[in-house]
Amino acid sequence: MSRDNNWIDRTIRLAVLVLVAGLGVFATVGLTRAPDDVPVPGVMDELSATGAADFDYYRQNIEPMFVRPRGYPNAGGSPACVMCHSWQTGLRFALADMTETADGWTWTAGQSQANYDVVTKLVNASNPASSKLLTKPLAQQSGGEGHSGGSYWDSTSDPEYQIVLQWIDMLPTEYFTPPPEPELDFEFYRTCVQDMIQNPKYGQLSCTVCHAGGSIGFAPRPANGTSWTEQEARRGFEVVKRLIVPGNPIQSRWMLKPLHLDGGGSYTHNGPRRWLSKDDPEWQMLAAWVRGERTGNDCSM
């Protein structure tokens, strides 16, 4: 099928989806192909008709999910996504602060556009089911990655999951396919990273005191009391990978939580701050590992 036919097919499918959702924007979806030099959707006055429909559908159907009350593990309240994702520093899913109006709190059109630009970086139109926007809130037993805020969808049959999946499937693959992420090297983790985890700085508490288990249990207590077995190391490694954005240390919670606030670290961390700034040689070594630049057993700084 030609590129033109692909574009027309995608446009027709999007129009049908928007009509079913009752958005009233069917008229904005045309069959005239956008020029080749149309930029990546992000600024509303430069969007193609298809891009505008994508945004309208997002604002009417996707964005309201972020303020919908959710259950939270071991807590009596029902916080929504915005309870964590509108104020924590460094998160790649960082939503704009909402605006108070006479009718309550909401996002303005400009704020929704900013959210759209963030959210569309978490999708993969070439392989929609692999999108972080879908895998993070999905239960792990159904293929999810794990999420500190809990699982919102027990299975891929959840109606919300299906709505998000259909929206991602309509996005142009040429604009919404992320580049490959670097691989985190397990040998370097086993040799160098775990050595750091076992040895606190400045007489501080060990990571294991708080992070021995649970969804953030990247530092399980060694069964033999001294060193991790291969199985224990693998378990910690899998947790660490969920707290890291491969290739991007400054958006990786695992790199920001122990970093001092004045040095660009996260606003909250119940434990000590291990690094005063990103210039710390240890932070730089780990940042290189996150970028895929450090492998093997050389722990030099």
Characterise the protein shown here.
This protein has a two-stranded antiparallel sheet. The N terminus is likely disordered. The chain folds into two domains: 168 residues, no CATH class; 105 residues, no CATH class. Strand 1 and strand 2 form a beta hairpin. The chain is 36% helix and 2% strand. The chain contains eleven helices and two strands, in the order H-H-H-E-E-H-H-H-H-H-H-H-H. By secondary structure, the chain is an all-alpha fold.
Helices and strands, with pairings:
Elements: H1 3-21, H2 49-62, H3 82-85, E1 99-101, E2 104-106, H4 109-119, H5 132-135, H6 159-170, H7 186-198, H8 208-211, H9 230-242, H10 253-256, H11 281-290
Antiparallel strand pairs: 1-2
Total DSSP helices: 11
Give the fraction of residues assigned to helices: 25-40%
Distance between the termini: 52 Å
| Major sheet | 2 strands, antiparallel
Structural class: mainly alpha
Oligomer description: single chain
The Cα radius of gyration reads 22 Å
> Biggest sheet, strands in spatial order?
1-2
Series of H and E elements: HHHEEHHHHHHHH
Segments where pLDDT lies below 50 for 5+ residues? Answer: 1-8, 10-47
* Overall average residue pLDDT: 78
How many domains, in number, for the residues?
A: 2
Choose one word for the global shape: globular
What percent strand?
under 5%
The tally of beta strands, per DSSP, is 2
